[in-house]
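Q: Could you fold this chain for me?
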Amino acid sequence: QTDTPSGFASDNAARGDFSSLVLGATARIHFYGVEDANSVQRLFGYDPEEILGHYFTDYIHPDWREDVQAFYIHQFQERKPETTREFPALTRAGEVKWIEQIVILQTEGDKVTGFLGFVRDISRRKRAEDQLRAIIDAVPDHIYVKDREHRFSLVNRATWENEGFHTQDEMISLTDRELYGADGEDDWEAEEALFN
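A: Sure. Below is the predicted structure, expressed as structure tokens.
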């Protein structure tokens, strides 16, 4: 079952059925007290005993490791209560699996005591997204999606190339006002009328 979440938790007897991780002195996350053997084996192919004491970041794809580590250091430093992050991880067999990880900061006063988190295999969803991406990028017409704040949340290749960008990421989160200035006001007002 690819959408069943696995978990890890701070060192709490009431949550002993979850894997645990803390931010160590080197600002890296590591496992300890793993109990949920089925989840660990299903997701990564390891027995719990094999990952005890290892850094969580060791199981992230090398191309993403530094970025993901920086993401959680930032959560720790900024005391963000909860974050969600998607990234590729490596199984024992070397297979790449995409996972979605929700991490909740555990605190006592101003002190961070650990992280409570849940991990879900989203590989099937990512494959479907990649297939959809290939389809819409092959369409010569402009395809885009905007959120309620008028920001582009998805654009196909024809759209971002027409606007002079090199990747869709350069255009994501921009608005017509930011792209076109006063010339974007008509589109903005038309969208407001639809939203309201």
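A (continued): The first strand starts at residue 6 and ends at 9.
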